Task: inverse folding
């Protein structure tokens, strides 16, 4: 089994307003995995992702990155990048400057910035849009820019917080399959937050199911595709539908327990 | 988006036509009822005065504009620095903001005599008065802008370990620009108002007097056409300032900000 990259042990998070976002969460993400955090609103899946990113600190419990309790500061082999729910692009800057931003902040020389931005834009299928402003792009294209901006640092771990939630279904399917192909090519570790069962099963090698009030992990379900390619046929195959059904039942059972 | 040509034409022609109509009715009414010139002068009389007193009026306009522009520049400089200071820390803001508001709510007419006594030289005294009037919109808008940063982008900068300086330069300042330019528009008009009010209060004669002094003098001498001519020049100066600020805003924001893109 591959080495653990991200670990949450007995993680609790209570916000200042008293909201208990996470209670005793245990999650392990291993190198090269594509893990989805699946659950209804308020189950703490985004909080867990933000904890992994270092944007929040836990109230109790332990977080480990590459078996170390210290948040990595961009050491080689231990870099993380995040994609948010919205594209969060700088409206005043063109696509090129938006994608280059993480490198600009790290004071990477201009020539290298340019080369790596071109590479990242090509990876998301946006070569030729360098000079466009965010407002000239569709929602799906803005999200591609956002992903390119995360890829430009060549991260070892990509954290994605419901990135395609606001997109229409066709665009979402396209981006899902492109993301899956990107992951397969790059060998990155991806942690993907979603509330869509179908999206989780389509994309992931493993789905961590979470329940609400309080936010907790209720199941950890591997997705077995028996080596079948993740294409449109996979979306209607028996193993796909079977896994979706199992996840749906797990979620229903979890919410029944929470309501009782 | 470019608007249909007819809409653009309408926006220029409609107010122009209305203005001409009002002027013509005014002229006709003055002639028809034989209104005395010391009550309401006809537009033609005002135009004659403008022509005859042109050099003196333009000289006065130059004086008023000089004070206005100096005060505006001071307000932008001081206001922006003040705003940057305010957003550094909550304690700084809590301590300083009440005084900025105090400055804003105290009428300049009330403080002007004091300033004119303290600062003996007339031009700097008038500039200080006008600056006090023009200052607040710059401070309040810039503070609002520096705080109105997309929280997602702020997270992104944090994740990439951006320094405070990088965040200011690459995120806070660009985010603040639309608000800052809004402040400029208000402040440019207020600088002119401040300059005129301060001239009224100062009320001194001498060699270099502004338009407000011309109005005062014209009032004493019941030279109503001169009064109208001076008023007209003040109004035109105000419109010119406002248009200049609108153009500057468009030039700076046209490529990305919603307010200018959809305008």
Result:
């Amino acid at each position: 089994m591959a080495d653990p990259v991200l670990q949450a042990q007995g993680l609790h998070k209570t916000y200042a307003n008293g909201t208990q976002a996470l209670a005793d969460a245990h999650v392990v993400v291993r190198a090269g995995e594509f893990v989805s955090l699946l659950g209804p609103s308020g189950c703490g899946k985004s909080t867990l992702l933000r904890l992994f990113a270092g944007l929040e600190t836990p109230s109790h419990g332990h977080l480990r990155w590459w078996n170390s309790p210290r948040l990595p500061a961009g050491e080689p082999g231990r870099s993380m990048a995040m994609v948010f729910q919205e594209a969060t692009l700088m409206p005043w800057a063109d696509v090129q400057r938006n994608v280059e931003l993480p490198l600009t902040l790290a004071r990477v020389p201009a020539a290298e910035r340019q080369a790596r931005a071109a590479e990242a834009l090509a990876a998301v299928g946006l070569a030729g849009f360098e000079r466009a402003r965010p407002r000239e792009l569709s929602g799906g294209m803005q999200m591609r820019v956002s992903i390119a901006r995360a890829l430009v640092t060549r991260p070892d771990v990509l954290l994605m917080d419901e990135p395609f939630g606001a997109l229409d279904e066709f665009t979402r399917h396209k981006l899902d399959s492109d993301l899956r192909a990107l992951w397969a090519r790059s060998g990155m570790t991806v942690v993907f937050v979603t509330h869509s069962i179908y999206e989780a099963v389509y994309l992931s090698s493993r789905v961590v199911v979470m329940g609400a009030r309080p936010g907790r992990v209720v199941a950890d379900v591997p997705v077995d595709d028996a080596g079948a390619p993740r294409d449109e046929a996979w979306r209607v195959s028996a193993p796909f539908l079977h896994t979706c059904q199992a996840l749906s039942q797990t979620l229903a059972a979890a919410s029944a327990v929470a309501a009782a | 988006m470019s608007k249909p040509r007819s809409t653009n034409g309408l926006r220029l022609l409609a107010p122009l036509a209305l203005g001409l109509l009002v002027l013509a009715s005014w002229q006709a009414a003055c002639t028809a009822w034989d209104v005395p010139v010391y009550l309401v002068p006809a537009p033609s009389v005002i135009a004659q005065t403008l022509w005859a007193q042109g050099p003196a009026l333009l000289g006065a306009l130059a004086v008023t504009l000089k004070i206005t522009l100096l005060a505006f520049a001071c307000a932008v400089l001081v206001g922006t620095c003040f705003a940057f200071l305010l957003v550094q820390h909550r304690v700084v803001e809590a301590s300083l903001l009440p005084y900025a508001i105090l400055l804003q709510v105290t009428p300049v007419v009330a403080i002007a005599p004091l300033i004119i006594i303290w600062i003996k030289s007339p031009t700097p005294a008038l500039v200080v008065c006008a600056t006090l009037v023009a200052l607040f919109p710059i401070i309040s808008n810039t503070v609002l802008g520096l705080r109105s940063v997309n929280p997602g982008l702020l997270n992104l900068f944090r994740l990439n370990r951006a320094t405070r300086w990088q965040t200011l330069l690459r995120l806070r300042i660009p985010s603040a620009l639309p608000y800052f330019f809004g402040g400029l528009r208000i402040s440019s008009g207020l600088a002119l108002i401040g300059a005129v009010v301060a001239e009224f209060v100062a009320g001194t004669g001498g060699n270099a007097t502004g338009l407000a002094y011309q109005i005062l003098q014209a009032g004493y001498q019941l030279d109503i056409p001169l009064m109208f001519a001076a008023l007209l020049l003040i109004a035109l100066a105000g419109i010119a300032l406002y248009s200049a600020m609108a153009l500057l805003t468009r030039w700076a924001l046209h490529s990305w900000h919603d307010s200018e893109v959809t305008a």
Summary: Chain B touches chain A at residues 150, 152-153, 155-162, 166, 170-171, 174, 177, 255-258, 261 (CB under 8 Å). Chain B has a mean pLDDT of 87. The longest helix of chain B spans residues 164-202. The two ends of chain B are 8 Å apart (CA to CA).
